[in-house]
Amino acid sequence: MSKRIVVLISGSGSNLQAIIDATQSGRINGDVVAVLSNKADVFGLERAANANIATEVLNHKAFDSRESFDAAMMQLIDGHTPDLIVLAGFMRILTPEFVRHYEGRMLNIHPSLLPKYKGLHTHQRALDAGDTEHGCTVHFVTEELDGGPSLVQGRVSIDPDDSSESLQQKVHVREHQIYPLAVEWFCAERASWSSEGVVFDGQVAPAEGIQFKPE
């Protein structure tokens, strides 16, 4: 059965594009059935429209609380009967009610090798710490910010002349590789969330997730 995917964005949607490309090529056994943004003027909505994908805009500023916004968002999302929710640069902290509603079927990507550097400014923090490698992690979303079980990580080396900007570019390349891969695994029912962590091909995955190896 082909899976139904709803993607949430707040910006340009480069990870969204990588996922759309992977669904259109047949690599992912699923379709992006809707893209929802909390901002009306972002390029990610154009990417969706260009792929003939339904778009929804829900301005969080029109709501008097985080709870009322999330409730309205759930109603919109559930109208598309999704199997999977993908957060692709969605710049909102979600309420516990929202997270629980989609438990086990919502993925996020974070620009660090979790559990290192939860939160913001991850590239600069990796540089400041003198790390020799950095990267990104796709994880299932739980109520703990950037704390859900990791599915897959993509690593990059940190060179002596790297800046925060150059490191961000390296990590973006990995993001566009591992996010479609994570969605592919979920839609093929190879990866799932459990109380023990991520189950991959019938085995509990390592705490840091599957390590992506570029070809």
From TrEMBL:
NADP among keywords: no
Binding positions for (6R)-10-formyltetrahydrofolate per the UniProt entry: R66, M91, R92, I93, L94, N108
Biological-process GO terms, alphabetical: 'de novo' IMP biosynthetic process
Annotated site residue numbers, Raises pKa of active site His: D146
Catalytic reaction annotation: N(1)-(5-phospho-beta-D-ribosyl)glycinamide + (6R)-10-formyltetrahydrofolate = N(2)-formyl-N(1)-(5-phospho-beta-D-ribosyl)glycinamide + (6S)-5,6,7,8-tetrahydrofolate + H(+)
Enzyme Commission code: 2.1.2.2
Gene Ontology cellular component terms for the protein in this record: cytosol
Domain Formyl transferase N-terminal: 3-183
UniProt keyword annotations, A-Z: Purine biosynthesis, Transferase
Positions that bind N(1)-(5-phospho-beta-D-ribosyl)glycinamide: G13, S14, N15
Pathway: Purine metabolism; IMP biosynthesis via de novo pathway; N(2)-formyl-N(1)-(5-phospho-D-ribosyl)glycinamide from N(1)-(5-phospho-D-ribosyl)glycinamide (10-formyl THF route): step 1/1
An example Gene Ontology molecular-function term: phosphoribosylglycinamide formyltransferase activity
Gene3D superfamilies in the cross-refs: Formyl transferase, N-terminal domain
Catalytic residue list: H110 (proton donor)
Protein task: Catalyzes the transfer of a formyl group from 10-formyltetrahydrofolate to 5-phospho-ribosyl-glycinamide (GAR), producing 5-phospho-ribosyl-N-formylglycinamide (FGAR) and tetrahydrofolate.
Protein family membership: Belongs to the GART family.
PANTHER family linked to this entry: PHOSPHORIBOSYLGLYCINAMIDE FORMYLTRANSFERASE
Name of the featured protein: Phosphoribosylglycinamide formyltransferase
Gene: purN
